[in-house]
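Exercise 7b. Backbone tokens:
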């Protein structure tokens, strides 16, 4: 039996087409809502302009994360799991639908949903461009009008039940996640799972850089965040050394040394990477710096240079290529 009533939003009507299961779910901030939808014109033919089932994958939004079609959040949070409902929405709620639809269509085609957009609000992009590339969406842009959305609520996933992407986290949550990732990386290193450990360190670095990007350069918080990044970067580079990803090590340690001149571990890691690639001049220069930074490390440097010389001689007598640095020094994650 169909039930028609108004939501507590002007210009919205709801009609339940199929009842859902259980009580109305709880929707805290960050809840992932997974659903299928159809979008229809409010005409005699009820022309369908979008259908997620034809794409082969449901849509999803995250509660409280400023989805461009703001009206969809109250629509979906009025539903039970398994419910199918039809919503009539006045033109005041559908102005950004062409931009949203274009983005979802590009994603379905494996393209960048922001393709062709400038950095401005959704309405700004709508006015800046005269065409979305889809005639039916262009018509809605030219003539704002009511739309009908038929939605089926498939899943409601609590924020703690899935891996949250960094863009979904607040600042405090990012900072709380970093030491957890750091410890996970260290545990993976002890198990010699260097690829997996590197991924944990890299994720932690990205979280800190995201937080740092919102601070004023030179401020205390900005500087402290930079200091927190250093040991994670060094641990990442150590994993890359173990995985023989030498160019990656050189790139990251060089960037780190530009900001933190004289960092012993970064210099030593870069020296080892250059030595493994038989970049003789660069390796000798970095090893000399290592010895200056810590004279007690001279015996290790001499052994490294001896191995480097042997590898250079071998390289000249064989096919050029990468030669593994033969010395293994203790490098535990910080």
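Sequence design result:
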């Amino acid at each position: 039996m169909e039930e028609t009533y108004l939501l507590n939003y002007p210009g919205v009507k709801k009609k339940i087409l199929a009842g859902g299961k259980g009580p109305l779910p709880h929707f805290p901030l960050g809840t992932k809502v997974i659903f299928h939808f159809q979008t229809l014109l409010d005409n005699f033919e009820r022309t369908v302009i979008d259908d997620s089932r034809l794409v082969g994958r449901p849509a999803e939004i995250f509660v409280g994360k400023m989805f461009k079609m703001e009206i969809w959040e109250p629509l979906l949070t009025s539903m039970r799991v398994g419910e199918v409902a039809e919503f009539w929405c006045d033109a005041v709620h559908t102005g950004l639908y062409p931009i949203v639809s274009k983005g979802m269509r590009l994603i379905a085609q494996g393209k960048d949903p922001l393709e062709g957009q400038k950095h401005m609000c959704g309405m700004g992009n709508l006015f800046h461009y005269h065409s979305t590339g889809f005639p039916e969406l262009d018509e809605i842009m030219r003539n704002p009008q009511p739309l009908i959305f038929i939605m089926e609520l498939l899943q409601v996933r609590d924020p703690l039940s899935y891996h949250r992407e960094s863009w979904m986290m607040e600042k405090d949550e990012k900072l709380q996640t970093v030491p957890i990732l750091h410890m996970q990386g260290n545990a993976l290193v002890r198990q010699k799972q260097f690829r997996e450990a590197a991924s944990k360190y890299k994720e932690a670095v990205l979280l800190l850089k995201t937080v740092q990007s919102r601070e004023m350069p030179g401020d205390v918080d900005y500087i402290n965040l930079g200091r927190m990044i250093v040991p994670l970067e060094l641990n990442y580079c150590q994993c890359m050394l173990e995985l023989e990803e030498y160019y990656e090590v050189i790139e990251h340690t060089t960037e780190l040394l530009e900001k933190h001149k004289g960092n012993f571990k970064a210099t030593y890691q870069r020296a080892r990477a250059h030595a493994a690639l038989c970049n003789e001049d660069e390796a000798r220069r970095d090893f000399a710096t290592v010895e200056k930074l810590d004279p007690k490390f001279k015996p290790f440097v001499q052994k490294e240079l001896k191995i480097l010389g042997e590898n250079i001689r071998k390289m000249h007598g064989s096919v050029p290529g990468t030669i593994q640095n033969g010395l293994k020094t203790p490098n535990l994650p910080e």
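Instructor comment: Residues 166-316 form a domain with the Serine Threonine Protein Phosphatase 5, Tetratricopeptide repeat fold (CATH 1.25.40.10). Residues 220-242 form the longest helix (23 residues).
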